[in-house]
Design brief:
α1 runs antiparallel to α4, α2 packs antiparallel against α3 and α2 runs antiparallel to α5. The protein contains five helices and no strands.
């Protein structure tokens, strides 16, 4: 298909989705760099493996997957013109996003309770990397919460209808991306010690 063909609205839709893909690839490169640095740093003499992976991070993976499912179901509800279900699903996604953030801070608390900190005499390279990677992801989650709030606002303004879901689709693309990113980071941090 020729990308220059179609109505102006179709061209705008394609260009916005392309920009979202570029943004997601850029974010992926940030985490590829961080996880690569983590792997390279494993050769350091001060690398430690006695840090116990926080249980809250384990729970957070279930919460983030559930939030992706609820966000996915929002578009289905909009397509069926079921605004009430879409509202409930959007608010559930927001609640799950908040619970995810809470669990991340619980995970940080667990790391600190184990005696590891981000910097200072009680820090080590493993805990520092874990804090940097998780906090960088949390920044993206906060961005996702803002995106979700905009989607919810637009939903209440009744901007999404069958065939008019671009903002919802872009929000879902971003949300699913940061969710997938956490699954990758979780598996990486859990298994690469």
């Amino acid at each position: 298909m020729d990308l220059t063909q179609g109505t102006t609205q179709e061209k705008i839709k394609r260009s916005k989705k392309t920009m979202m893909w570029f943004a997601m690839v850029s974010m992926a490169m940030v985490f590829a760099g961080l996880t690569s640095a983590y792997v390279v740093s494993k050769a350091r003499k001060d690398w430690t493996t006695d840090l116990v992976f926080p249980r809250a991070f384990v729970y957070s993976i279930l919460v983030i997957i559930a939030s992706s499912i609820t966000f996915y179901m929002v578009k289905k509800a909009i397509e069926k013109e079921n605004r009430k279900a879409a509202t409930i699903l959007l608010l559930a996604t927001l609640g799950l996003g908040g619970l995810f953030i809470f669990l991340q801070f619980e995970g940080f608390s667990d790391i600190v309770n184990q005696g590891y900190h981000f910097t200072g005499p009680t820090s080590n390279i493993v805990s520092t990397f874990m804090f940097i990677i998780v906090v960088t992801h949390l920044v993206h989650i906060f961005g996702g919460i803002i995106v979700l709030l905009v989607v919810i606002y637009n939903h209440f303004k009744q901007k999404y209808k069958t065939g008019q879901t671009l903002g919802l689709e872009l929000g879902a693309m971003y949300w699913h991306f940061v969710d997938f990113l956490w699954v990758y980071l979780f598996l990486f941090l859990y298994f690469v010690k």
